[in-house]
Amino acid sequence: MSPKTHHRLRMHLGAPIGSIFRCAGLVQRRRMAPGDLDIVPLAHAASWEEDGPATMLGICLMPSLIQNAADGLDLNPDSISVAPQLQLSDARISHIGWALRAELLEPEPYGRLYAESLGLALAAQLLKRYATIVPPRLGNLSKRRLSNVIDFIHDNLARDLSLNELAAVAGLSPSHFNALFKQTTRQPAHQFVIQCRVEHAISFLATGKFSLAEIASQAGFYDQSHMARCMRRVVGLTPAAIKRQAPIAH
What we know:
Arc Repressor Mutant, subunit A; four-stranded antiparallel β-sheet; three-stranded antiparallel β-sheet
């Protein structure tokens, strides 16, 4: 039961079950329900012992992620102190936990940008609820910064873009960028990237010169099925339907 180098969150997913939790000399016997949370901050030693088989979601939050979230909330990371939180019932954190679990099990996940956004939202929520915090000062991305980010997205659609990359282009911390981008464009960064990929794919489909597999790869989708699902969500049409409407290439 040695101290860790990261912050830990453990969420109970299965049926109610008895559990013994040990942390910092504390021994707590309790009955865990689905969605119940334990938060163990950096450098605290902890252990869990369930009465039987149990399904848990374990999340490790690196100090760099907490620092990025603190930067976005105008907090001094060195002044933040969060005590262990035991058997919490926190609807917002649980919602993020279930979303992370769904992403892990999804055969066609949204990708790294979405997962990083969830991780950052989780870190920010932990700071908002369980540390002293100054409310963030939100505004909009400047036209120059927004233009640079959009150009970077269009130039790198085939890649698995990360939140850190987009934030670096804007010259902001990931947390601050994530909030300002949504404030400016009225949609999260990962949804904006999907929309750009769909528009890019449609432009290729309109030429009638490329196969669906080639277009999916060039637009940054995992495969044709992933492209079709995203396209139906964004424009209400399948790639095959759009391709049939395209002029015949000569």
